[in-house]
Design goal:
The complex is a heterodimer of chains A (369) and B (651).
Chain A: H1 2-10, H2 14-35, H3 41-63, H4 66-71, H5 73-90, E1 92-94, E2 97-103, E3 106-108, H6 110-128, H7 136-154, H8 159-163, H9 166-174, H10 180-203, H11 208-218, H12 228-240, H13 252-255, H14 267-300, H15 304-328, H16 346-364
Chain B: H1 2-37, H2 39-50, E1 51-56, E2 63-64, E3 70-83, H3 90-100, H4 107-116, E4 122-127, H5 131-139, E5 147-156, H6 164-167, E6 170-172, H7 175-181, E7 191-193, H8 196-200, H9 202-205, E8 210-215, E9 236-237, E10 245-246, H10 251-260, E11 266-271, E12 278-284, H11 290-293, H12 298-306, H13 315-318, H14 328-337, E13 347-349, E14 352-355, E15 358-361, E16 369-371, H15 373-378, H16 382-401, H17 425-430, H18 441-445, H19 455-467, E17 470-472, E18 483-486, H20 491-507, E19 521-527, E20 548-555, E21 562-568, H21 577-591, H22 598-603, H23 634-638
Parallel strand pairs in B: 2-10
Antiparallel strand pairs in B: 1-8, 2-3, 3-4, 3-5, 6-7, 8-9, 11-12, 11-21, 13-16, 14-15, 17-18, 19-20, 20-21
Helix pairs in contact in B: 10-21, 14-16, 14-20
Classes of the chains: A mainly alpha (369), B alpha+beta (651).
């Protein structure tokens, strides 16, 4: 243990840790502003607690060598799948789906932790492949490992969270034996297929509110009181921030309840409104720096499993950032995907922290034998 | 293992890095576009989101009479307003409204109300609503989202229809008026004067609305948040109330006169000749201006505007009639001043005058014999004034007419005044009625022919006579007198005319207005409605064919403080009711006599003929049928007022 600590300190990835801490503090500030003076005001303080807890999770993920994490990954994975399987019985209804589990007064979302477990289990599988190239069969197994908790989440039915497993599968595919040109080709086919699925789903399984969101994405001002209201108000929040913002705690769209879900899905609206273009750009810069750092770590990683873990962290955070901010600034349709480190929520913050901690872990131990 | 995978992996990571940069640049550009380029636009939208302007209504000024009696004030009332800017379906709202309030309105009616409104998104659906509606609208806001209750200040006229034509009425500002008056308030309840003093003094009476910017949250509730200091919120511009307007009107005199008319229609104006202050302004039938300050039902409006007795017509300035014999003193004045007549000039009246083959009759069939000026006025001898008119000629009369306000508007501070006609050769030529014949002078000299006046113009003649030549602009609003014209009438002429007019009241046709201790100068007159044969008693005709009766003059003779004109429509002989009405007014003004209870008034007719008495032939009877050649062209008289002189039966 002493050795690993020294190792972590001497080669420690303090850049990742610094960026992480900056995002964590930024997030707490924004949640406090987004809930100030509302009936959610206590969430501002609770987010501090979550942040402390998340920092603990980050430290744990950082300090315990990732080889150990990988070693016990199947156990963690099995535990998560078991909990997910029991959700129809043990789960609590929140927002129309059974995705919450309560232990005493503390509730958490098992599907969030299943993502980390799935990434670690995937890494363990890759570790076993040493020397062999990944063929279609291996990719199939890897996708199955990630797809199982995804399927269970989809059954809750938490569509939004389920989609966040997709980046992990994408990483598996990306790291496969296929050359880049093939991957680009398959990605294009995949996007086309997704659009076809969407078109098909329009007439079959998409719920009315989901259709509304798509209509609203195409025509945000078509119905300013109905489905378009949220998107429209979010855009006003972002735009009215102008260059310097209205100041922390002074966003009118936020404070006077025009902005929907300001402390969760639309928290970027608060950032944009209160800190302006410069603040938003700074936040984007933090994310960009963190993600570039992950790519650099992936390149420097000692082994395939480490690389896989870092790229999972990269993919999942990128996915959340793109979908969430894209939604607020009107580049993608409305979905219930939260923004990492900023949106209120303990489980999500902890799972994201675990990913960042593991990524920092991989970098810190890139020379270890 | 590492070496084998390296090149492919590195290129894949580099590819990811490139994609990452591209995505973030796209996001940054999008943010730049929304926040920096479109920022001001969205800032405005956000300000519109959280601010709500509330109109602070300015009360309209009060209207007081010369003694401070309140003629018009404001009363709080509540209205039902539809706001289309609120979300919701109009059809559903109308259905809910019908169910909850029992108010039935069609979509078309609402659209019409929206068009009328100066604020395109707001429509006033009902005014002066029952209090039960207020609670129902509040309680059912979820179903009646588009409706709300607004408080407004409604005009109230405590005296009801008394002096309605002087006061006028108000109505909601129309979009055209908003443009004309440069009113840009977002308030559908701005009222403007539509007639009377309400209109002429509108600029004084109308206040300026204030504004309060409240901070609202997404539910439209007002919130006061000391931790949130926002630009534009908390601005409060106090309303500027309209000014109180003082009138020269004496509401007691007004009341006395309107009561004196009884059931009769007509007009009466009392004025201080030395200042132009109007003391009473009677136009009957009148209307209740209170009706106009709520929502006027279309049926009520139609009823008033289609009433054959024209209650909305402001008779003193919109009714045009021949002055008849009341014009004779003016003719005498021109003759005396221009040296054509002297007080001793006499003419012989055999009852008619054969003027170049055309016979002009006097009202007295048997004639007056030899008549001098005093007797000519006192007995209202037509033949005397045919001769006088022939000697004076239209040019001399035209020269003097402008000093007495004939043929021009008096400029009284009331809207829509029209003017009668003072005929002249130039006027006749312009109308393509041929050249001016010497015979045209004769009917003009007895107040007939082409000559017409409004009651106020006739009053102007007598007021100018009373002041010895100074003519003041008649006015209802208190203020300094405004001299319109001035001409020096010689004291001799003034004395002669005053003497003659005094005699009319003392022992002539106007004895019904004799007041012991007061020297009243006045003259009776008749405006023909239907031509009657010579000497025919117009009182025997059906009521609506009887002549209009004039009574005009001033008092006291020495230093006149009041000039007046009374016109009773279809009143027949001018000496009776019209004179009695004038008497009631004069007694109040000069002797401080309060009106007697109605039943006493009919009994007492001091010095006058009892109404039942056999009436002598009308001394002021108009011209006869054979004067058709110079009869007033019908269209001129009927153009404005069909109920005035009715030239029925004429070609």
């Amino acid at each position: 243990m002493k050795k690993t600590l020294r190792e972590a300190v001497s080669y420690g990835d303090f850049v990742t840790a610094g960026l992480y801490l900056a995002l964590l503090i930024f997030g707490v500030l924004m949640v406090r502003s987004a809930t100030f003076g509302t009936r959610f005001a206590n969430l501002g303080n609770r987010q501090i607690f979550w942040a402390v807890l998340a920092f603990g999770a980050f430290s744990l993920a950082f300090l315990i060598p990732y080889a150990i994490w990988v070693e016990y990954s199947y156990l963690l994975y099995g535990l998560c799948v078991a909990v997910l399987l029991s959700m129809p019985v043990l789960g609590h209804y929140v927002g129309g789906h059974k995705s919450w589990l309560y232990i005493g007064p503390i509730g958490f979302e098992p599907s969030e932790f299943a993502k980390v477990a799935a990434a670690l289990a995937g890494a363990a599988f890759i570790k076993e492949l040493v020397g062999r190239t990944m063929g279609w069969r291996e990719i199939g197994i890897l996708s199955g490992i990630i797809g199982l908790p995804m399927l269970l989440t989809l059954l809750q039915p938490d569509f939004g969270t389920a989609t966040t497993f997709i980046p992990l599968i994408a990483v598996a595919l990306y790291l496969s034996f296929l050359p880049l040109t093939q991957i680009v080709k398959w990605a294009a086919i995949g996007i086309l297929g997704l659009m076809l699925l969407l078109a098909l789903g329009w007439f079959t399984f998409l719920k009315p509110y989901q259709k509304d969101r798509i209509i609203t994405f195409v025509h945000p001002t078509a119905n300013t009181r109905g489905a378009g209201y949220q998107v429209n108000q979010a855009r006003i929040a972002v735009g009215s921030g102008e260059l310097l913002g209205k100041g922390l705690y002074s966003g009118t769209q936020n404070r006077l309840n025009f902005l929907p879900a300001p402390h969760t899905d639309f928290i970027f609206g608060v950032v944009a409104e209160e800190t302006g273009f410069l603040g938003s750009l700074a936040l984007l810069g933090l994310y960009l720096s963190l993600l570039l750092r992950f790519l650099s770590t992936a390149s420097a990683a000692r082994d395939a499993e480490g690389r896989f873990i870092v790229l999972c962290a990269f993919a999942i955070i990128l996915y959340h950032v793109l979908i969430n901010i894209g939604m607020v600034i009107g580049l993608v349709p409305t979905t219930g995907i939260p923004l990492p480190f900023l949106s209120y929520g303990g489980s999500f913050l902890v799972s994201m922290s675990l990913f960042v901690g593991l990524a920092a872990n991989v970098r810190s131990r890139r020379y270890a034998q | 293992m590492k070496g084998a995978q390296e090149p492919s992996l590195q290129s894949k990571l580099q590819f990811l890095q490139a994609i990452l940069w591209i995505l973030f640049v796209i996001f940054a550009l999008r943010l730049f576009y929304l926040q920096v380029i479109q920022g001001p636009y969205y800032r405005l939208l956000s300000e519109n989101n959280y601010t709500r302007p509330t109109v602070l209504r300015a009360p309209r000024g009060m209207i007081l009479d010369r003694n401070g009696a309140v003629l018009c004030r404001n009363q709080v009332s509540f209205s039902l307003v539809l706001d289309t800017a609120k979300g919701g379906s109009l059809d559903q709202t109308l259905l809910n409204m019908q169910r909850i309030l029992g108010l039935v309105m069609t979509k078309e009616e609402v659209r019409a109300a929206l068009r009328r409104s100066p604020v395109p998104s707001l429509a006033v659906l009902a005014r002066d609503i029952p209090t039960a509606w207020m609670q129902k609208v509040e309680a059912n806001q979820d179903e009646l989202k588009m409706l709300r209750i607004e408080m407004e200040l409604r005009r109230e006229y405590p005296f009801g229809p008394v002096a309605s034509h002087a006061l006028g009425y108000v109505g909601l500002l129309s979009p055209e008026e908003a443009q004309k008056l440069h009113v840009s308030d977002n308030d559908p309840f701005i009222e403007v004067g539509k007639s009377g003093v309400e209109r002429t003094a509108n600029a004084l009476l109308m206040g300026k609305n204030g504004l309060r910017m409240a901070q609202v949250n997404s539910l439209g509730r007002e919130v006061e948040d000391p931790t949130l200091k926002l630009p534009g919120v908390g601005i409060r511009r106090e309303p500027i109330p309209g000014q109180t307007v003082h009138l020269t009107l004496d509401i007691q005199l007004q009341n006395i006169l309107e009561q004196a008319f009884g059931e009769e229609h007509g007009s009466a104006v009392f004025m201080n000749p030395q200042t132009g202050d109007i003391l009473a302004w009677v136009s009957l039938p009148n209307f209740d201006p209170n009706l106009f300050s709520g929502a006027v039902p279309a049926s009520k409006w139609r009823e008033l505007s289609e009433d054959p007795s024209h209650p909305l017509l402001d008779r003193p300035i919109q009714g045009v009639y021949p002055p008849g014999s009341t014009f004779k003193p003016f003719v005498a004045l021109v003759g005396l001043e221009d040296g054509v007549l002297t007080p001793d000039t006499t003419f012989y009246c055999p009852g008619y005058w054969d003027f170049g083959g055309r016979v002009f009759h006097c009202w007295a069939k048997g004639g007056h014999g030899t008549v001098n000026l005093l007797k000519g006025i006192q007995d209202s001898c037509d033949v005397y004034f045919y001769h006088a008119g022939d000697r004076i000629g239209i040019q001399r009369m035209d020269k003097w007419a402008k000093f007495f306000g004939l043929g021009t508007k008096t400029g009284v501070d009331l809207p829509s005044e029209i003017s009668g006609i003072f005929p002249s050769p130039a006027w006749k030529a312009k109308r393509h009625l041929g050249p001016w014949y010497p015979g045209d002078n004769l009917p003009v000299a007895i107040g007939q022919g082409y000559l017409t006046v409004t009651p106020l113009q006739l009053l102007s003649i007598y007021a100018t006579l009373a002041t010895g030549g100074e003519r003041f602009q008649p006015k209802l609003l208190e203020g300094p007198p405004k001299l319109e014209s001035s001409v020096a009438i010689s004291p001799q002429t003034e004395a002669v005319l005053k003497q003659a007019l005094e005699l009319v009241v003392e022992s002539g046709t106007g004895t019904a207005c004799r007041i012991p201790g007061v020297a009243v100068c006045a003259k009776t007159g008749t405006a023909q409605v239907v031509e009657a044969s010579a000497g025919r008693n117009s009182m025997s005709l059906p009521k609506d064919e009887r002549d209009h009766a004039w009574f005009a003059g001033f008092a006291p003779a020495g230093n006149p403080t009041v000039a007046f004109v009374v016109m009773v429509e279809h009143g027949g002989h001018g000496g009776d009711l019209a004179a009695k009405i004038a008497k009631a007014g004069l007694e109040y003004l000069l002797l401080g006599k309060k009106p007697a209870p109605p039943d006493e008034g009919t009994k007492a007719a001091p010095g006058g003929q009892a109404p039942e008495q056999e009436t002598p032939p009308n001394p002021d009877a108009p011209l006869k049928a054979h004067l058709g050649a110079v009869a007033p062209p019908p269209r001129l008289l009927t153009a404005r007022y069909a109920g005035g002189v009715n030239p029925r039966g004429r070609p």
